[in-house]
Amino acid sequence: MAKTLFLHLGLHKTATTSFQATCAKNRGELLRQGFHYPLISCGEGTIAPFDNHSIPLFSLFSQDPKHYPVNVRLGLDNLNAIHQLYRDQLQVALSSNHDLILSAEDISSLEFNEIHQLLDYLQRSGREIRPIASVRHPYAYHCSQLQQQIKDGTPMVPWHHCPQRDRVKKLDAVFKGDLQYINFEASCNHPQGPVANLLNNLGVNIEAIDISGRNIGRCNDNIRLQNALNYRQPLLVNQQRNPQHIKIAPFPGHKFRLTSKELSEHSPHWDEPSREATLIEHLEHERNMLETITGLSWNTEQTETREDPLDDIYPIASSALVITIALVLQSQHHTGIRSLPIDKIHASLTQHGSNCLKKLQSITNSHLESLIEPRERNQTSAPEDELIECGLPDEAIKTLLSVAKTWIRRQRAAA
Q1: What is the pTM of this model?
Q2: Tally of CA atoms within 13 A in the half-sphere of 340 that contains its CB
Q3: pLDDT along the chain (415 residues), means of 10
Q4: Which residues pair with residue 8 across a beta bridge?
Q5: Which phi and psi (to 5°) does residue 255 adopt?
């Protein structure tokens, strides 16, 4: 009897990272139960073997692997040799006497013919292929994907997004009736979460499995501040890492959701239901389309929104200072400082005394929202000019710049 290949296709933002981490950590127990979960190495000693099989599979079957973001980020350019390593390791895995689990959410990002080539390759192993894909509620997916893009250093356009249905249609056409769909929101109701639900679905006894959780979402304020910096200096420029990119270190707060205003904006890049429809109308259309294709269903409860972009987890002055520090660092081609911890920056601000804090009291929510509004940086603009453009009072600008330069100087002295 032919062994099974469980091909986990994601989709993206459905706890795939946690699933992969759990399988990697429990490889011994999975093997004891008859399941092989391989780790694939690229041959670079400084890079750990991949538990995400997207990396070798996408790189092998994409027509343009050198521009695959993971290859760019890891600096993998000797692709001929790396691809041969991938093939050798995959052949060993496919020849295993156990049922095989491959988890690769980026398969859905391949072109239709590329997925067919991958499927042909896997079928030659003689295994029974069982493809599985989890699908999210469109609005929750939309928010999660925007959040991930911002974490990855890409600026956000609230309505600009790749609908799940495009990938679902593609997978559905390749795998036809063999593809099993899982309602991600329903899987989250499992007592141990969506990872345990998926493992159960594969036939794994989860009693002896240590479930991992990874890729925890950033809070709304963190994402909004990061997005402001991404617009000015994204992580990648001309497909190369940008040395002027600055990250905001994670901090706790409320989950990221779009505002009512953002949801009411038009989404001109989506063709259906019309180019004049609002984002919320497109998301409702997306829900109907997904339910038709997959047979899944989601409730039609009112979409969770927020009225203001920021929750003010930290005082307005502290958030404004974080942005100011980033602007100064970017103007100096920041050396050695790439991540800004808002908690420590806030603490240092309070140490500057009441006179300094009093000068920053004139900064309002309106000023801060103007600071975080999407805007591409004018490379000739000084930090002071950007603060002036956002309408901040002169005294507040001078104080922010002074405190920012002091903080940077102290960080460099302590390094």
Answers
A1: 0.81
A2: 29
A3: 91 94 97 98 95 98 95 93 98 97 97 97 97 94 89 84 85 94 94 95 96 76 94 86 91 91 78 75 89 90 79 93 94 82 94 91 94 72 90 95 95 86
A4: 103, 132
A5: -70, 155
